[in-house]
Specification:
The protein is globular. The termini are far apart. It is α/β, with parallel strands linked by helices. It has one domain: Rossmann fold (3-Layer(aba) Sandwich), CATH 3.40.50. 36% of the residues lie in helices and 20% in strands.
Length: 138
């Protein structure tokens, strides 16, 4: 009897938030090439609108945001998600130090903070490790 095993891979869905369209396009192209499904948003208000329409963030595996958006801060978006009782991996990318970012939020231990500049490969590695449950500090 011949038995076939199928290796079913589930694409991980990420939300990327940055007000720089070029960075969003670069992240999206690179991460989609590596098997991620991406929703890109260009502002804090875009994220708030999405969050209102999907308040449980169902289907989202991780959120990645720049800290300094034109209309908001990534840490405010992170806090908004936490305040709704949703535990989802959240990564902030910032030029500020880890301590400066961590001091802005109630639960910094649940937040990955990456200091700019960061390479695309480093970002992918952090996402892979975060979704795998590992904690890493840069």
């Amino acid at each position: 009897m011949l038995v076939r095993c199928l290796n079913i891979v589930t694409m991980r869905k990420l939300i990327l938030i940055d007000d720089n369209k070029d960075i969003l396009a670069m992240w999206k192209m690179y991460l989609e090439k590596h098997g991620f499904d991406l929703l890109t948003l260009e502002s804090g208000s875009d994220f708030e609108s999405y969050f209102e329409s999907n308040p449980s963030l169902e289907g989202i595996d991780c959120i990645i945001s720049d800290e300094s958006l034109k209309d908001d801060l990534g840490t405010n978006l992170y806090q908004m998600v936490l305040d709704k009782g949703i535990s989802i991996p959240f990564i902030i990318i910032s030029g500020y130090s880890r301590e400066e970012i961590a001091s802005k939020v109630k639960s910094p231990e649940k937040l990955q903070i990456l200091k700019k500049p960061i390479s695309l490969q480093d970002l992918k590695d952090v996402i892979d490790q975060t979704l795998g449950g590992e904690t890493i500090v840069y």
